[in-house]
Amino acid sequence: MSRAEVDRESASTGEWKRQGNRFTDRISRDTTSAPGEGPDDQGRWPVEPGRYRLVVSLACPWAHRALIVRGLLGLEDAISLAIVDPIRDEKGWRFTLDPDDRDPVLGISYLSEAYLGTDPEYAGRVTVPAIVDTVTGRVVTNDFPQITLDLSTEWVDFHRPDAPRLIPDQRDEMDQLIAEIYTDVNNGVYRCGFAKSQEAYEAAYDALFARLDVLEQRLADRDYLLGDTLSEVDIRLFTTLVRFDAVYYGHFKCNRSKLTELPNLWAYARRLYQSPGFGETVDFDQIKRHYYGTHDTINPNGIIPKGPDPRVWTD
To answer: Where does the record place Basic and acidic residues bias (predicted)?
Structure first.
């Protein structure tokens, strides 16, 4: 993030506070809109295979979780995929990985074009993941916590026959874990990295490692966070863990322990990485180039570290 973006999302105490999600419509089976139409009066768009485009960065943990869920559920043919360049310029996320530097479906060069086409007054940070309607070019949602849940619950008619059930019938325990992990871990590493005061940094650091210690103990006698079955919360934790040693440990000063020094969490993360649908979605080159190459407030010279060796995830 640029210095201006960090400043805009920082409190007077030095604590970094993530901006809210601007576009929070949903694609829902309960919509009253007909196929081909826009949202109903409650912001619900119709479920239509082939209509929507999921825009992600392989560097971004929030987008990464949507990529994993889409693949695990077998929604590749139902929802198309656009991948932006990991390096953002002053206009934000760019489609420079595509021919002519333009998304071939949406016909735009920057994701910001879809944002401004939906809300011409938008002045916040352009974020991924975002789901864009290919009919109108409008952003349907950039509400990253809801996107993956809706892939599980609203697109069931298009799941592959052997798709995992990522959301249990009884959600209370999972939802509580999701909330704790988001606050202290998923967002906690950013609160460490973008803190503008020593006090704010240390508070975030202490909360991060206190939560990781709890999760380390939780995984002492189970394969997944909810027991013996993969669920949504595992995917949300994985996308932070897989970036931990490569980025967060040094770049964000989360340096009490490496992931490889937390035996249960490390074994859990490696097991997920080696499971179908996980490791093939990880691009350490793009992850490192994004964080070290675009956070000029933290790494002004833009030097990208060579390590760590990614073979530790498979050897």
So the answer is: 1-29
